[in-house]
Design goal:
Blueprint (H helix, E strand, L loop, with lengths): L3 E5 L6 H9 L17 E5 L6 E5 L10 H16 L2 E7 L6 H11 L5 E6 L6 H5 L11 E2 L8 H9 L17 E5 L6 H9 L17 E7 L2 E7 L12 H16 L2 E7 L6 H13 L2 E7 L6 H14 L7 E4 L8 H15 L5 H14 L11 E9 L4 E7 L6 H15 L7 E6 L11
Parallel strand pairs: 1-3, 1-4, 4-5, 5-6, 7-9, 7-10, 10-11, 11-12, 14-15
Antiparallel strand pairs: 2-3, 8-9, 13-14
Helix pairs in contact: 11-12
Amino acid sequence: MKPTLVLVGRPNVGKSTLFNRLTRTRDALVADMPGLTRDRHYGIGRVGSRDYFVVDTGGFEPLAKEGVVAEMARQAEAAIAEGDALLFIVDGRVGLTPHDKQIADTLRRAGRPVFLVVNKGEGVNRDTFSAEFHELGFGTPYVISAAHGEGVRQLVDLVLESFPAAAEEDEGAERGPRVAIVGRPNVGKSTLINALLGEDRVIAFDMPGTTRDAIAIPFERNGRAYTLIDTAGLRRRGKVFEAIEKFSVIKTLQAVEEANVVVMVLDASQDISDQDAHIAGFVLDAGRALVLAINKWDSVDDYRRERVRAEIERKLYFLGFARHHYISALKSVGVGALLKSVDLAYAAAMAKLPTPRLTRALQLAVSKQAPPRHGVFRPKMRYAHQGGQNPPVVVVHGNALDHVPEAYRRYLERAFVDTFKLQGTPLRIEFRSAHNPYADKDKD
């Protein structure tokens, strides 16, 4: 198995910067403010000669007893327990602090190899820069600059030396769908992920906006691999005031773009808002397969349930392709069936549509209802083929297709969806007209 390296330290010492450096991504939020990372964040290490996992954690407060800070500490402790090696990050420019000493005491009791990493060491004498950190008792400190990459490769190779080489993995192995969980703040997204996983994997705290980053969580159920992505709650742009929330919105939108299937969580105890429609609209624009999860269903009466159903039909009418699930994430009621719909939506999004069947479906639809004329010409549709997946794209070839009305495009979409049973995913149609050889000739 690949070893897991866990980055631990107090806030604002550069853990997320190092995470991004090791994974060669920008998956972890980075800004010049403490406490930006809250949940533990997994990635695949790409710096060094070996494969490994790397885990970013929030600023570690070992003595915290309550509130979000205590939840962050609990997440960090869970990551420490999962880790094969701990990279204890300290800030060399600030120097040794009492907070560092508290963390060191906790790590000594963890029973894991600890590597003391002194960050922000660009352009300094390394021996002098790291001298005071010998006091922590973790051996020789390793001076790096996560922002500039200095010493990072050497550190990783040193850490991985003590682990046996992992067997090569099949590059073509099925990794399963990436499933993004989205919705307004405080609708129960993190609680739903914990229910699916059967553990408190992400922070579920009774305060809107607890999740700030998009957290990718690989897991397996019934022999099938998935990657769940817990995202920050989306607000209207006018409601986003803090720089942190602006970053979080970007991460959520990126998570939707990179997902195969999106589970949109609604709160049955609240009205369906314009913001819910905006989120759904973005998912639709991104072309992602979608499953609707109406959460907290156990907490509302029959009148409220009927009202929610009517509001979904009225305000989210454009999501007619998506399956609906009425659930209680807190009590794990109805969440099992959710993954079945995710599987069906993923299969639809990644479906392979043979050209002969597509062309026959096109011809059948045209025979039932021909496209309307544009002037003296009627568009002529000759054949169709698949142009992409996630979402499925159907390319229709013919003559005079530039003026096919939107209503007829929707008619063809429904025809293809019904023929190939593509429930759970939007479908896109592109029209390509054959070149008219006489178009460029002089009209004398």
